[in-house]
Amino acid sequence: LRELRRIVSICQNGQDMTDKLQPAQPGFSIGIDLGGTNLRVAAYSNEFQQLDMLSLRTRLEAGPAAVLRDMADAARSLHAAQNGYGKFVGVGIGSPGPIELPEGKLRAPANLPGWDGLALRSELHKLLDMPIIVESDANAAAFAEWRLGAGKAYGVDSMAMFTLGTGVGGGVILQNKIWHGAMGMAAEPGHTVVYPGGPLCNCGSHGCLESYASATGVRRIAAEIGATAGGERLQGMLAKHGELHAHDVATLAREGDAASIKVFEEAGAALGLGIAQVVGSLNLSLYIIGGAMFDSLLASSQIYRMTQPENRGQFEVRMTNVFPAHLGPEAGLLGAALLPWSE
Ligand SMILES: [Zn+2]
Fold it and tell me: What is the 246 CA–ligand 1 centroid distance (Å)?
């Protein structure tokens, strides 16, 4: 195709335009996926191939200053290792929210205890003299899914993504851009109320989506259902491990344990209500669900029943499409690395 364009351009302009048609000069960016457990820092090429990655433990017990130092050291080391690769465009960070943007000021993030009020961008900037862009981790994942995953595959300029993990994150792309809202805190579906009067969430509300369709939510529901008649296998799992993990409940559900299936149906029904709110507000055609918890929930037909997608197989641009994410667990890290290129 490149050669064809070159020939066409020569015919049109009467001169060789080859120089202008070469792919962009090689270059790279660094993405940081800051999680409550793991800190991943990676260099990506201008064609979004991962060049190098460092995976560290997030040393929460050592405090924010130590973790910021780890981030800066890792970014510097990757930057030095790519020396000669080409133009360096900057560092993108995907951080747990809630977070005010663009300064990246954290607001009591549940996954980063002790980080409340920390201005991520300026604090890291004191240690790292590089261009730095901060996003919420869910926005970064949504951005990657839109640019290189499901959004690219279906050719949409707008979409919403729900990320199911310890909590429920979200990101909305509207007309080719991340929708930030007034303070950068748009698209926080984890704290939309799906069941008024439901369990108390750590945000202070009752019945938030996060209290159902997250790993934490599944553990809570499993404890409840496990205590009722028919919940013997859940009880057994609890006795064996001392606590109920979402992935253990998922294993029981896959084995056909009715009580465990019920746990995921309840979580899936809540997710469906959460998605339906966005469908009703934004009338987008594409809703993407990703995150570590999603495989477990996928088994639940409740997601599809509650959102009532008109189309269950092929993408149709004039319909409501609810589909799994394409990129997997790398989406957040990749999205962070994409950010400096979008500036
Ligand atoms: Zn909440």
Answer: 19
pLDDT above 60 (res 286): yes
pLDDT in tens, 132-171: 999 999 999 999 999 999 999 999 999 999 999 888 989 9
pTM of the model: 0.85
Q: Which two tokens stand for residue 211?
A: 């209290």
Give the model's pLDDT for residue 298: 60
d(CA 115, CA 57): 17
Instruction: Tell me the CA–centroid distance for residue 299 and ligand 1, in Å.
Output: 25
Q: What are phi and psi of 253, to 5 degrees?
A: -65, -40
Which of 58-72, 161-175, 268-282, 305-319 holds the top average pLDDT?
58-72
Four-residue CA torsion sign, 315, 319, 323, 326 = positive
| Contact present, 272 and 305 (Cβ < 8 Å) | yes
Q: How far apart are CA 267 and CA 221, in angstroms?
A: 8
Using CB atoms within 10 Å of the CB of residue 223, give its burial: 0 to 12 exposed, 13 to 18 middle, 19+ buried.
middle
The Å distance, Cα 255 to ligand 1 centre, comes to 32
Q: Which two tokens stand for residue 264?
A: 């995921």
Please determine, for residue 342, whether its predicted confidence score (pLDDT) is greater than 90. no
Q: Are 260 and 249 in contact (CB under 8 A)?
A: yes
Mean pLDDT along residues 49-62: 96
- CB atoms within 5 A of ion ligand 1 belong to 191, 201, 203, 205, 208
